[in-house]
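Q: Predict the assembly, please.
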Amino acid sequence: MAATAPERPSDVPSAPARAVVAGSGLLRGGWTRMLGLAVAVALLVAVTLGSVLLGTLPVGLSDVVGALTGPPDSDVERAVRYIRIPRTATGLLAGTALGVAGAVMQGLTRNPLAGPGVLGVNAGAALAVVLAMVGLGITTAAGYVWFAFAGAAVAAVFVYLLGSLGLGGATPVKLALAGSAFTALLGAITTMITLRDASTMDDFRYWVVGSLTRSDGEALTAVAPLIAVGVVVAAGLTRALNALALGDDLARSLGTRLWIDRTVGALAVVLLAGGATAIAGPIGFIGLVVPHVARMVAGPDYRWVLAWTAVLAPTLLLVADVLGRVLVRPEQLQVGIITGLAGAPFFLYLVRNRKVVGT
Amino acid sequence: MSSLVRRGPTPDMLLLDPRGVPVSFRLSRSAVLLTVVAAMAAVAVATASLTLGVYPISVSDAIGIVGGGGSLIERDVVLGDRLPRALTGLGVGAAFALSGAILQRIAANPLVSPDVIGINSGAAMGALTVLLVVGGGGLQLVTGALAGALLAAVMIVLIAYRRGLHGFRLVLVGIGVAAMLSSAISYLLTRSDIHRAMSAAAWLTGSLANRSSLHVTIIALALAVTVPALVVGSRHLRLLELGDDLTRTLTGAGQGRKVALLLLAVVLAAMATAAAGPIGFVALVAPQITRRLLAERQVGLAPSAAVGALLVVGADLAGRLIFAPSEMPVGVLTAILGAPALLYLLARAHRIGAAG
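A: Predicted assembly structure:
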């Protein structure tokens, strides 16, 4: 899309059109971007390895090989197999899912403030988890997984239907506003329950921070296919997202079937964000911010934005998690806290020093 | 038609042109109507909130008590508790709504509100530092919230200002700062004991319980300082949505007015948060409800303020009555009342303009 973008017209272009025409990232040209992406993937692999090796318990490469190849026969190998590897896998899955979901959501709503949470996914998951705590007395992390996913899915479907009512169907502004309104409503109900019940509040305040340590292998293998399908669907949508960035009218005249693309996109967001919230709790910042970083690096073409987001988001999440383990040894900081505290200054630096590329 | 108000160019428009003053205003009939109706409803709800509760008082008694009558206990209930609460609610609602209306115009984005761009998180961070680390209350809490909000705002503007203040960059910087601060808040919450965490969580929801003349003074001061400036500056708000280039061409004005308007929005949100905690959603929903009711692309500051005041006093009264004898913080109820209203208006939108 970027290669065939028209020259800036002499009259004043509309805001979204200007964003596509004038926008180009740090890396220009297909080969530079490809090379950059290869470096980013290498970095992700290194970070993944680091996430398995680093922490309170020193782990060597031989321990990892031992844990992967046969039944674990030392404490270290057991720690690798049942703690480090699920934790790293959670980071990879949740990071990719949240990042891609955020990029799709920003494309669908043409709003830089839209993260995966805008469809009500986090709020729905949080309410479902609180209801599971209060109503069914479930307190184990693994027990929350399906409640969280169901809550996220129901909330997203509801928001989408609400946003589609009235003239014009699910227009970006209506979708974004319906999502924020519904999110606020669900959040209020959640607060209402937790404020009246100190023990639920005690469990909930840890769930709501977001952490990579709560899912076991079973939960991960159940959620991974959902996230994989979500990524594939999102990858198929990139051309439609590029067209949508030009505005509804132009997208329609380019042959985009708006309501089909929006519905498919919303479905992908439900799978991705719902899956991520189910295994890691609500981690808001990654999905909101990484697509912007990707845009600053690779320009506004959604094919590149999605690819870069899918690599950068898990990298950032795993780095944050490792920092949380290493910084306050022997205690740990939840990854949701670190992504905000360490990721935000980096993001602010980028926003200040790079040309901001619009959605 | 008196000579003060003249017919405007369209049937819905009125021209307010006071003699001897070199300014005139265009008013829309529907906006004036909405402002008057919402403001009267807000005052009515506030009056009702003086009489209703665990200790019921009749309307005439309540008015008598405010005028100086009543027994000691009645004076304590009405003047010591319910009146400051109602006044703070009215002021805070109006202030949040004005702040949201200005910010949504500056950023040309309906999702922007002081909570989104980190001003509320700044206030919350300041207040929680006082609450959880220092262990203070009352005036210290208010000072902490105010300092936190202003600090966050200064940080946002300093980082975002680069050869002018662009709406898009401002929003991105805002969400970055908000994310950083809310992480710090989560950290403080998980590190403190459950009782302090509970009281902090209640403050974070926004509450009008136990207000005193201190809180009324803060919010009255905020409105007294900002509203006159807004009356002058509001005409510039409409232009801002056209973009920086067109604004400069049409008015010759640079970034100064935009920064001034932003500052007004920040002061309003900061003082309101200091007075009642970060009551969520009012700043986002009140301007949007107004915009959809008027179904016109007008600034609508006065109607937004009236709708915001109505929403907050209504939510506070509901939180007090439904959950009596205990009560639910107002911040919970603003979303429960405001969200369905906005969703209904969105679903009902039958005109292109009304759908936004």
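Residues 75-109 of chain A form the longest helix (35 residues). Confidence is low (pLDDT under 50) at residues 1-23 of chain A.
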